[in-house]
Every structure is written in structure tokens, then in C-alpha cells.
Amino acid sequence: MENRVAVIGVIIEDVNSVERLNLLLHEYGAYIIGRMGIPYRERSINIISLAVDAPQDVISALSGKIGRLPGVQAKTAYSNIIS
Fold first, then answer.
1. What are phi and psi of 14, to 5 degrees?
2. What is the mean pLDDT of the chain?
3. Cβ(78)–Cβ(58) below 8 Å
4. Smallest Cα–Cα separation from 25: which of 49, 55, 41?
5. 3-state secondary structure (DSSP) of residue 28
6. Which phi and psi angles does 56 have, rounded to 5°?
7. pLDDT for 27-71, tens place per residue?
8. Scanning 7, 62, 66, 71, which has its CA 20 to 30 A from the CA of 34?
9. 34: closest CA among 15, 50, 10?
10. Backbone angles phi, psi at 28, to 5 degrees
11. HEC profile for 8-71?
């Protein structure tokens, strides 16, 4: 299957979902190129940017699972490079 590079933007509004999010990220760790987290204390949210290199269905599955966590939103942007 062909891999794509993508960025998944995650906003966490419910800190009770952080543990489940970290379990998901560990599960998909083989596909994660890098991760940057920013706590935005003034707004009581956390922002995470994930760079991934994986088959499109794996990226979609990860993004969907993240987005289904309570108080968590996820959006994905794909590169046009397919390998």
C-alpha cells in the first residue's frame, strides 16, 4: 500500500481525554514522524500537531479515532507526495 505524509492538527478541550489520546498515539507510534504539543493555558486547551507517514487508511483511522474522543477535535492535511 502507498504511504502519504500528512499533518493532523488536534485541539483538546477536555483534559480527561488526554490519557486515551496518548494510548492511541502510542498504538500508531510507528507512523508518527514527529509531535509538537502546545499548552494554551489562557484558554484551557492543548494543541498538538502530528506529522505522520502512513497509508491513507491508517491516517484516516487515526484521525477519526482521535476526533471521536470527548472534547477533542482533529483535522488532517495531506501532502500530494505518494510513495
1. -115, 105
2. 96
3. no
4. 49
5. coil
6. -60, -35
7. 999 999 999 999 999 999 999 999 999 999 999 999 999 999 999
8. 71
9. 50
10. -100, 15
11. EEEEECCHHHHHHHHHHHHHCHHHEEEEEEEEEHHHCEEEEEEEEEEEHHHHHHHHHHHHCCCC
Summarize the confidence of residues 7-12 as an average pLDDT: 98
The C-alpha cell that represents 70 in the structure block: 470527548
Residue 68 backbone dihedrals phi, psi, to 5 degrees: -85, -10
d(CA 55, CA 18): 25
Identity of the residue numbered 73: Q
CATH number at residue 55: 3.30.70.1150
Cell numbers representing residue 36 in the block: 509538537
Work out how many domains the chain is built from and give that number: 1
